[in-house]
Amino acid sequence: MGLVFTYALTYGGALLALFNPFYGLLVYVCFAIIRPEFMWSWSVPEGNYSRIVAMGLLVGWAIRGFGRWRFGGRAGSSPPWCASGCGRSSA
Predict the structure, then answer these.
(1) Closest CA to 32 of 11, 15, 51
(2) How far is it between the farthest Cα atoms of the chain?
(3) Which of 52, 78, 88, 91 could serve as 82's disulfide partner, Cβ 3.0–4.6 Å?
């Protein structure tokens, strides 16, 4: 069962990551947590499962133009911690 789970998540996650890289990231993190080659050491051979998903993730991210790089909201807006009037003297 572990072998089927690992292969399905590896190749399904790599394929899905080509269309939506976030799903590839989720599978990558899942493999980092459960580490299938150690959890099911009797049935899952050591392999590059995370690397396969990471390659799909990176290719999918490149296909989507490396994401949106818009940091912050409006131009000239103050940071949220200054909303209470930081830097003003109360004289």
Answers:
(1) 51
(2) 73
(3) 78
